[in-house]
Write a structure and sequence with these properties.
By secondary structure, the chain is mainly alpha-helical. It has three helices and two strands; from the N terminus they run H-E-H-E-H. It has a two-stranded parallel sheet with strand order 1-2. Helix 2 links the parallel strand 1 and strand 2. The radius of gyration is 13 Å and the shape is globular. The mean pLDDT is 85.
Amino acid sequence: LHAERLAVRGGPAEAVHDELTFFDVSSYGPRTVDAMLRVVGADRLVHGSDRPIAEPPALSALGPSLAHALTESNPERLLSPDPVIA
């Protein structure tokens, strides 16, 4: 999604493959998150918040392991002062 959009606009589409780049999926539903999983993997997705503008969509269909990664382990790595590549 992001790589194609960047490429069309002449941007650095290859940046989507930078292992230190994370993607906030808080405003996307399960189908888009699943598509992003296929391109960048689960280790680079985080679930932030669009509150109070919008409630986050339910991602329970993607399973408890992914929910844990998006809301706990990945944000912890993202916010760590010493980035660790997964």
